[in-house]
Amino acid sequence: MLTLEGEPRLRVIRGPGTVLAYLAFNLRDPILKDVRVRQAIAYAIDRRPHIHYLWRDSARLATSVLPPESWAYDADVPQYSFDPERARQLLDAAGYPAINGVRFHLIMKTSTEESSRAMAAVFQQQLREVGIALDIRSFESATFFADVTHGEFQTYSLRWVGGNEDPDIFEYAFHSARIIPNGANRQFYRNPRVDALIDAARTEADQNVRKRDYAAIQKILAADLPYVDLWYFDNVMVYSKRVQNLQLNPSGNYDFLRTAELRVAP
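RE: above sequence
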């Protein structure tokens, strides 16, 4: 990107995007079914070095599956700033004392993509500081995704692209009726209150009431932590300076072509 920014015939613009990176847990797992363990992991992860070093400051911290640009987004949720000491306290309370520096082992599955493995390696180092030994298993993309969609994992990281811009994502990814293979609830997450709120919000005509229901859902999910919402990626557009009237939108779609104009060279 830095090379392209130095090219005199090109223009590079960037802006906030909606693609979400997240860390997911298998709630059937005997260790990860304890919410205190999931919360401890959230506190043990420092997302800022990822954004700065891995993504070159081209991302912003996430607090919800929904991006801030969504009408249903609510930022008033439990948040997990980097706090290793709090993580250790939660793990102690959950009954996992450190023995020779290790409380337990977890396996994180990733694809063989370089950035995914680099991210997992940083997680591995950060979790080691609180006594969690993270073992990384990398697979080619088809095998990795097959394992994820069949629930054959303890933890993994993926991205939501586009599907998380509408609050219907909550039904697809977190309703108990959508546990795989019936949807994208790959975490085996069950919460009757969340189910009821989702059902109510999807049938309610009043958008203000729907917004209130979706806000309640986001608060519960932030407390229950079937996901750790990591960051939203920025959008980047590179184009010839001969093209004018381009506007980058958060969705990163091709709507900008409606106003694009090509300047004819003199």
